[in-house]
Amino acid sequence: MRRTTSGVIGLAGVCLGAMILAGCGGQPAPEPEPAMAEAALATTNPYREFGITANNAFFYYDDVERAAEFYTDTLGVDLVADYDFAKILRLAGTSYLILVDAEMGMHSTDEPKSVALALLTDELEAWHEYLQGQDVEFRSELSVNPDGPHDGFVVLDPEGYLLEFERFNDHPENVDLTPQLAQLDSLYPPADRGATAPSDLGIKATVLWLYYADMDSIQAFYEEKFGLDLTVDQGWAKIYQTSPAGYIGLVDGERGMRDATETKAVTVSFFTDDIRGWFDYTRDEQAFELRSEAVSEADDRFLAFVGYDPEGYFLEFDTFLEHEANTELLEAMSQ
After folding, report:
1. Phi-psi region of 17 (alpha: psi -120 to 50; beta: other; left: phi over 0)
2. Which range (22-26, 27-31, 33-37, 67-71) has the least confidence?
3. In the chain, domain spans
4. How far apart are the C-alpha atoms of 146 and 124, rounded to whole Å?
5. CATH topology assigned to domain 49-334
6. What is the pLDDT of residues 104-158, one digit of tens each?
7. pTM exceeds cut of 0.85
8. What stretch of H or E contains 82?
């Protein structure tokens, strides 16, 4: 069982910017003036400086082929790369899901599934009607409130991960979110894949819901260490945009569909074009605890490194390389 940190690691003692660069040599640096120190701490917003090109999550399965069939056939999601033990699915424009054979992954299927994946759609009622006719287990039935901020229903995938089909409405709570969603095109089942899912049922964006014991600390972590801006404040749940069609949602584990747990059968992942920028920032500023000592180059298909957020969710950063296995994936990411 991995040790987790209990709070946000500070930036004290880190050399930042030209103003205090002289202090990184053999001579001790003078104490900076308060204004200088504040400016130095504000020099790096990693989200803006290094970027996130797409959101991703790793889910772990005993039968990864059965899971892949569910997503590609029943839901009509596009399989854009197949590594055999891992299947990379494109859910929305900049949102992906990787299904992993648990025997070869960082997590086991015995760990709690402390995550839910919201699939945002304009065709909510049609999705509900269609899935009622499929061999799909429902966690909750369709709930629609024209005056409320969102409508939706929840189903389980073949091994128990929660999928929330959701529509965010024109509502004061969503004043920042709805303009972002309005700029997006939905992804529909590829016409040449022969999926069971109807061709007019799409997914516009995703929210990866994560469950926490200390909401104040985790909100500060993603705002201060990642540089994210709050998009939706639901009180006991906070939503942040991390790519055009990808969001993460921080949820109070005492209020949400899942509990906050020490271990979790999920890895939160971000695709980036500047993986070394993210790694150097994380290492040098101790932004979060690292599992990896360096960016891994062991596989010629991708670069990666892994760390942990303050409550133990694995955070993986990935850059995919030119390789025959990544042809469709890279094409999708370039769109």
Report:
1. left
2. 22-26
3. 49-334
4. 13
5. 2,3-Dihydroxybiphenyl 1,2-Dioxygenase; domain 1 (3.10.180)
6. 999 999 999 999 999 999 999 999 999 999 999 999 999 999 899 999 999 999 9
7. yes
8. strand 78-82
